[in-house]
Amino acid sequence: MDKVAYWLWLTEIFGTGNERLWTAMKCFGEPDTAYWELCRNNHGLKLNQKELSNIKSVSLENCLKLIDVYNSKGFSVTGFSSPEYPDYLRNIYNPPAVLFYKGDIECLNRMPAITIVGARRSSNQSLMIAERISSELAQNGFVIVSGFARGTDIHSHLGAIRAGCPTVCVMGCGLDIDYPKENFIYRDSVLKNGGVFISEYPLGTPPLQQNFPKRNRILSGVSRGVVIVEAGEKSGSLITAELAVEQNREVFCVPPADIYDRRYAGNIRFLRDGAVAVYGYEDIAGYFNPFENDIEEEIPEIDEPEISQEVPENSENSDDSEKTDDLSEFSDIQKEIIRILMQGKTHIDVISDRLGYDVSELVAEITNLEFDDVIQSFPGKIYGLK
Questions:
Q1: pLDDT of 284-310, one tens digit each?
Q2: CA pair distance 265, 290, nearest whole angstrom
Q3: Of 15, 31, 293, 378, whose CB neighbour count within 10 A is largest?
Q4: Which residues face 114 on adjacent strands?
Q5: C-alpha R_g of the chain
């Protein structure tokens, strides 16, 4: 049986976006195991009355029927362990166990994503910037993510659409709800260009105010970084940016033309805290390699005992092979890092993806390699061999 049904069942038991689901998963590991153990009352969890009642009233068969209903209406359901589930989203705190979607969700696994956020009542200048940066990033291999709201969001999506590229709309309501109504004229354009609408909320869920802060962890979680175009001191966009920091994503900010304009107070705050100033799409694209999947096969196997990779003559690291012939003095992780960097400068997120380590696990090893004068850092958490 497809595990999506089990993930859906768990969501029905604990509630959409409830972190208690993941407390349970720490005990059981797999969703089907969790299902059987919870149904048999063979667990040590302290469940509340509502959860106990849900276990008795929600059946797995009904979850399977619900998936069929979604499919019959043109929607799809994916679970946390499904291959099409967005890879980056798996690594955040309290990821959604289930996502409902319409369109090509796998665009998030084929290309790096950038989330664009800003005010619903943005200035015309900010709307122009959002649309232009989104269009240029899309044309350079990035998927544009936003919340399909008025203002900055929809102009970001339109930038990708007008470039003929996919865009991801993360909703704070059920996918069958036309919210906001004026933006749903663009729904077909999103889908025709290979984009997708995603939500953790079931069909029929209205756009309640409390849904959107919870939705924001998905906005930042699916992406490599978040761009703040225009945000006031109490803008909801800052919630997404703060979540991005917690999730170890990069935060970019458009500097205001007028530093005393309160509409950009949020931008200024994050710029003071170290966010990257954006003067064009190049400031974002330079942090990442949008074509990293194209070179995956060129990276040597990390468990090979020796390096026999021949570096191209025109590579700026053309003498790296001489520097890394003997790796016996390095730890296993350090050896793996060096082998990847033999391919050229690489962002730390790419190294993390390739090796399967969290960024936090790599930082100490990379720092030691810098101290040993083996590698050097470049702006934007990019590293290369010396």
A1: 988 876 444 443 333 334 343 333 333
A2: 31
A3: 31
A4: 144, 225
A5: 23
